[in-house]
Amino acid sequence: MSYESETLRKYKMPSKKEVEQALLVSLFKNNGVIKEFGSGEEIVNDIADKFNLSYEQRNAHLETIYRKENRIKRSFLWHRLLFRAAHDLANHNFVSRPTKTFLLTNKREWMLTEKGYDAALKLLHLPEKSKDLLLIKSYEVQKIVKKLVDSSAPKNYNPFNIETKTIKITKELSLRVRGFRQAVIEAYDWKCAFCGIKINSPNSLLWEVQAAHIVPHGSKGKDDIWNGLALCSLHHWAFDVGWFTLQNDFTIKISSKLNSLPEDFGKIGDFDFMRMNLNKKTKIFLPQKEEIYPHQNAITWHRENKFYQ
Ligand SMILES: [Zn+2]
Questions:
Q1: What domains appear along the chain, each with residue ranges and CATH number?
Q2: Cα 236 to ligand 1 centroid, rounded to whole Å
Q3: Over the stretch 248-295, which tens digit does the pLDDT of each residue have?
């Protein structure tokens, strides 16, 4: 038996398999990503807490002798175990390694792959279709996000899909839709572009904000960042039914029909969900990068086809 496995046994450390499973669950609960494991990282203690590791187990060391350099390198046994488990997960494509993720996101993080995401859902007894509701990162979806937000805005953008055959609900389509959702919501900082509300569920897994299509899917609208807008469910609904639209300078234009509504419509106490922006010339909240603002061709279409003058 090797020195390392002997030490692991001596300190009655959890098995690599158990640590791998705990890692997948932790990744899931940390939005799909975790930094490299080192002292002071919260995640390192969080997982140790899950195993109820004692002080001795958390602080046990491995000593490696480097004869050539004539020195002894000490490393935490617990960190080593986490590393080994993470590398094993990466070897079997459940996670991407920090070096690989870096090329995609410029951050050195372990990131769930779709395979790892599925495994985490299974461990937590959640159905696979939860992926359509959650905004947890996966390597494959982030690849689509990068493609969507890195391209520069085309002058003559066509917001319509020209594919004539009906698109089957394939894995590819579901990834594309999730990529669109993730890209739009991240670009708008998880806020409604109309009212600015930003709120998630108490367990932090679900977000209220939705990725709206300016030209909707039903009218063959594309899953592009230029055809997207992050809106809360209330303002998503109001946008889709034509209560408001956008001018070319991104100010909000509200339907004159609103004036003929009864006084008590659309209100929660003093909060008036449409009129809050009626009198001011208010712009929507926009992404940081101008290249990914909603495209004029998409908003013009909405103004002409969906908006109720
Ligand atoms: Zn809103």
A1: 3-126 (1.10.10), 146-305 (no CATH)
A2: 7
A3: 999 999 999 988 988 888 888 888 887 776 556 689 999 999 999 999
